[in-house]
Amino acid sequence: MLLALAATAIPAAATSRIKDIADFEGVRENQLVGYGLVVGLDGTGDDMKKKAPFTRESLIGMLERLGVKVNRGDTDLETKNLAAVMVTATLPAFARQGSEIDVSVSSLGDATSLQGGTLLATPLIGADGEVYSVAQGGITIGGFKATGAAETIVRGVPTSGRIVRGGIVEREIPFELNQLSSLKLALRNPDFTTAQRISDAINAAVGAGTAVPLDSGTVQLNSAQFPGGPAALITNVEQLPIEPDQQARVVIDENTGVIVMGENVRISKVAVAQGNLTIRVTETPQVSQPSPFSSTGVTVVVPRTDIEVQEDRNRKLAVLPTSLTLEQLVTGINSLGVGPRDLISILQSIKAAGALQADIVTQ
Predict the structure, then answer these.
(1) Sign of the CA dihedral with 80 first, then 84, 90, and 91 last
(2) What are the two backbone dihedrals, phi and then psi, of residue 181, each rounded to the nearest 5 degrees?
(3) Among candidates 74, 68, 91, 79, which has minimal Cα distance to 37?
(4) Angle CA(17)–CA(18)–CA(24) in degrees, nearest 5?
């Protein structure tokens, strides 16, 4: 009973599913992009005469493809109900022909709002230049813009929006998962220890020899000997719990003062002191005037400078013992009463002294 109570008192290690820390090679999304026109805007479209001539050219080209003869010198085409947009979408893995995907629409010219607009049929191409989807439909925006004579109110971004299920897949990406004799797991955070733990967990759950770590970021799976094939193997593997190993690292963002320390950050025994010296210079010039009815005196400005030196003498050395946990390290540094900017300098100085057993990454 005592052993059971002792076991329950030990905190469980943080585990993650394999599907949350690794990706299966070949099972991926693809980015699509296209150029299109949005019509039906209420006077909030592009200025086709001065700032967005490409919108006018696109309109003329579209009308000519539809069999409408257009005079390029016609000034009646300078409407404000049209906007040129960039359309983007993500093609999911194994998307089949005829399936629908969401698309995002963003203004390319000087349109002030896409509210109420309709995207005309726009081909979406992949990195290889092939058309994989066609998008069309009414745009839903998440903001608005109200303009009056003396004030303008903008909420959100009215020049971008989405069309839910507005893209239809026209071409499939050729990839036969069931024909693969082996699969590869790509770790999102490469680490040799984590790769070995994944391999051991898979071999214990599925069968010896199924998984072999190739390097710190890749684990190879032998799907040929699994009865259900690659799809069934992925289903069995991705739910396995793994405790990822974490590299001792301190990430510092100099711009915002954000500091993030990993769980395995340790320091050797070191003494730290942080001084606070403030020098304040105040200029209070005074005007000196001659006495009334004086014929010789002149008005001059006399400088007055006050220099104040303030030094916090309560700052003392603080000893940080060896093998601190993350919580103890944070508590010890906080006892110095320093802010994030000073803390960055302290951590860099501890690292320079060779007492910080972690890598410092500055962004």
Answers:
(1) positive
(2) -90, -15
(3) 79
(4) 145
